Amino acid sequence: MNEFELIGRYFKRPAPSALLGVGDDAAIVRPTPGHDLHMSVDMLVEGRHFFADVAPRALGHKALAVNLSDLAAMGARPRWALLSLALPKADEAWVAEFAAGFLALADAHGVELIGGDTTCGPLTLSVTILGEAPAGQALRRAAAKAGDDIWVSGELGLGALSVRQRLGWLNVNDAELLAAARYKLEYPEPRLALGAALLPLAHAAADVSDGLMADLGHILDESAVAAEVWADALPSHPALEARRGEFLACLAAGGDDYELVFTATPAKRAAIEAAAAARGCRVSRIGRIVAGKGARLLDSAGVEIKLDKDGYDHFG
Amino acid sequence: MNEFELIGRYFKRPAPSALLGVGDDAAIVRPTPGHDLHMSVDMLVEGRHFFADVAPRALGHKALAVNLSDLAAMGARPRWALLSLALPKADEAWVAEFAAGFLALADAHGVELIGGDTTCGPLTLSVTILGEAPAGQALRRAAAKAGDDIWVSGELGLGALSVRQRLGWLNVNDAELLAAARYKLEYPEPRLALGAALLPLAHAAADVSDGLMADLGHILDESAVAAEVWADALPSHPALEARRGEFLACLAAGGDDYELVFTATPAKRAAIEAAAAARGCRVSRIGRIVAGKGARLLDSAGVEIKLDKDGYDHFG
């Protein structure tokens, strides 16, 4: 067993739901009868998706969180994860911290790590997540209907604010706000409980990873509808309220939010607010689905606001 | 949509068995009732797992083949794959060739690519493979029993010979042999049909990726048994027969074979040979499982042969 295989042992945990966990050619699980299997993969590369000096515990959390967020956007319950990890060197302290962050979030959501691969290479992570939902039930991007409300969970813009401050594009002098923003960037909380609760309530959903307008745009494209989004309704941190105009690009198109954007018939407003409140999750109604094509961001007078970019582009 | 997302389109194919394929937050499939789900992930890094100048079509084949080989070793039928791909630049010609190699092998085995992620970064691949087998049936490493025969499929040593020639560790002057070796290295054929046929016949199985003695060692450790392996019985290419001694390290411990090593009771000899013959696959009986610990490689006089390394170590 080489050093990297030894390091893989940091991730070896009991997986009571698995028939066979880490240590054979493949892991074996028994899917729940009457359920569909939902799965997604995300790859994170140093310098593209995270700063080189990110704390390994935060990186472990985020690597899993961004995948769980995809399942939240489907309304699926996460079950199993596989982790591929390329590391420049076999740094045991780093791996211990990374594993602690990853596994703490996994435990919090009942996710079992049942497979993986650890190797030597430029720091790169790839997490595969598998979840389940009752057969035929899912929050698909293609399900939005004209007349739907558009909702978003939590608060927007903080992750993007943190990235842009770090890159020197912004100059924010509010230490408390910056700390909150950095925490939101590094420890996003996937909205799994909300997503599952929305299965019978919402039509379409997506998670906000590339920026609200971009991710809403995917829903619109897949559903062949358009949207009006009310800039004043975009939820954010109290410290940003007085400076909404300045930070509108972060709010509407910043990315790294890992909130849910979803659509639902107006008849479900009260039920959605109750479901969110029961899960301690803020939800805000931010616009409506209309016939047509594309998303328009509107000011309080109903005039369209044009942003330079409509989403965060990792390669832009 | 950025260049990398556009390139992701090369992998977008109809996935008739999926309820939802590429293009939402997650893919959705419906597992076959009465079956267990088998899954594995492998990460390949340039310069560690493949040469930087490998043809992209060969790399696409191999990235999937090494994963399929894991399922073959479980006796599972492959169903779905997810691909994470980090590329230094958005080279469309390269991606077209890579996708062609990957998808040709996928098509040959009825595998549907239902998810993935393409991003910018040092060339790194991670493939997640999912397969199914009837509930409770699997070729586990932990199932070998004292008295079992040890078998291996196909021929050993050619992949390792190609790597070692390329690295300058060997000096082979047989162009035909070198061509065969390189082909075996770059286009390994996962032994899926054989693996599935072995489900009712074999006890334990593993795929030979790190070298016969190392991978057999995993079976022994998990099964708490020992093995005698007969050096003269290790199957190889006809051109190597006259030089077995010289190439014994490649045969017994070379790696990159992607053959199956498996154990079975002697009562199944005829059935195993018939099952392999029906699938056009050579199988060779190379030793036996005994009580104890560890694997011993024996010469024709029964004297133990000690190799410098008992397996190929990517970081050795």
Q: What is the subunit arrangement here? A: homodimer
The CATH topology of the largest domain in chain A is: Phosphoribosyl-aminoimidazole Synthetase, Chain A, domain 2
- What is the approximate shape of chain A? globular
The CATH architecture of the largest domain in chain A: Alpha-Beta Complex
Report the end-to-end length of chain A measured between terminal Cα atoms: 42 Å
Please give the count of helices of chain A.
Answer: 10
Largest sheet of chain A: 6 strands, mixed
Helix-strand sequence of chain A: HEEEHEHEEEHHHEHEHHEHEE
Strand content of chain A: 25-35%
Assigned CATH superfamily of the largest domain in chain A? PurM-like C-terminal domain
Q: What's the structural domain tally of chain A?
A: 2
- C-alpha Rg of chain A, in Å? 20 Å
> Structural class, from helix and strand content of chain A?
alpha+beta
What is the typical, i.e. mean, pLDDT of chain A? 92
Provide an overview of this structure.
- The structure is a homodimer of 316-residue chains.
- Chain A is α+β, with helices and mostly antiparallel strands and 316 residues long.
- Chain A folds into 2 domains: 3-134, PurM-like, N-terminal domain (60s Ribosomal Protein L30, Chain: A, 2-Layer Sandwich), CATH 3.30.1330.10; 148-298, Phosphoribosyl-aminoimidazole Synthetase, Chain A, domain 2 (Alpha-Beta Complex), CATH 3.90.650.10.
- The first copy, chain A, is 32% helix and 26% strand.
- Chain A has helices at 3-8, 56-72, 92-108, 158-166, 175-186, 192-198, 212-223, 238-241, 248-253, 269-278; strands spanning 18-20, 27-29, 35-45, 77-87, 112-120, 124-134, 149-153, 205-208, 226-230, 259-264, 283-290, 294-298.
- A 6-stranded mixed sheet of chain A has the order 8-10-7-11-9-12, with helices on both faces. Chain A has a 4-stranded mixed sheet with strand order 3-6-4-5.
- In chain A, helix 2 (56-72) packs parallel to helix 3.
- The longest helix of chain A has 17 residues, at 56-72.
- The radius of gyration of chain A is 20 Å and the shape is globular.
- Chains A and B meet through strand 2, strand 3, helix 2, strand 4 and strand 5 of A and strand 2, strand 3, strand 4, strand 5 and strand 6 of B.
- Strand 2 of chain A pairs antiparallel with strand 3 (35-45) of chain B.
